[in-house]
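Thread amino acids onto this structure.
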């Protein structure tokens, strides 16, 4: 009965009321809309059978008795919590991005510094290589100059020695030339004699009979030359013997040598 009175008051004043089930354990906050729906169900039950409202078994929030649940406040607090978490995530993201940008800047600086160091090392290495090449060229030029100077000194010494030898060797060379002239004269006489005795063959246009006759003539001539050579050789031997014999006879008188 008390529940019906509460429903009437709630429906009349349009306020929220507490509905207590028959079990007396659950309390629900009902609005005027819910109350109107309940009244319609009761009217239908009076015409027929009495139908008790079926309330779903929902665990109610544990709040003090007599107080209302402010869903707007809960929603606001949940939104504030979500916004706070989102802001925290945004801050963490930007902080991470800031650190990554700082690391990227540091990496670029290290790369530029390393590039500058390599350029400096290459410059120093190139300068050292130029200095080394310059020293090698100077050393090579110095050695070439020393060798040229030494060759010039050797040539000067040779010329000096030859000039001194020429001054003292002139008479000897003149004597050698005179002797060579005499020998050449004897050789010339021999050549002239051989040229007189040597006859041209002239066998280009001869036939077989002519060649045979020419060969016979040459053989006779060779025989004559060999005979003269033999006679001259024997004559030379006799002369040498007479010279030796005459020399021994003049040098020895009475069985003694002068």
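Threaded sequence (258 positions):
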């Amino acid at each position: 009965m008390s529940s019906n009175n509460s429903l009437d008051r709630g429906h009349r004043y349009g306020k929220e009321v507490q509905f207590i089930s028959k079990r007396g354990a659950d309390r629900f906050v009902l609005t005027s809309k819910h109350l109107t729906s309940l009244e319609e169900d009761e009217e239908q039950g009076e015409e027929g059978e009495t139908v008790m409202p079926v309330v779903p078994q929902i665990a109610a929030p544990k709040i003090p008795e007599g107080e209302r649940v402010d869903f707007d406040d809960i929603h606001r607090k949940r939104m504030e919590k979500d916004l706070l978490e989102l802001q925290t995530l945004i801050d963490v993201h930007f902080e991470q991005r800031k650190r990554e940008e700082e690391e990227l800047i540091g990496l670029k600086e290290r790369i530029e510094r390393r590039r500058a160091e390599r350029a400096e090392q290459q410059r120093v290495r190139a300068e050292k290589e130029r200095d080394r090449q310059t020293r090698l060229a100077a050393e090579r030029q110095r050695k070439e100059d020393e060798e040229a100077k030494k060759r010039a000194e050797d040539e000067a010494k040779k010329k000096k020695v030859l000039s001194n030898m020429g001054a003292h060797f002139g008479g000897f060379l003149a004597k050698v030339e005179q002797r060579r002239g005499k020998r050449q004269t004897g050789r010339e006489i021999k050549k002239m004699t051989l040229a007189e005795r040597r006859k041209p063959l002239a066998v280009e246009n001869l036939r077989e009979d002519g060649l045979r006759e020419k060969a016979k003539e040459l053989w006779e001539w060779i025989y004559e030359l060999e005979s003269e050579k033999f006679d001259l050789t024997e004559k030379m031997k006799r002369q040498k013997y007479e010279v030796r014999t005459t020399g021994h006879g003049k040098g020895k008188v009475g069985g003694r040598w002068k």
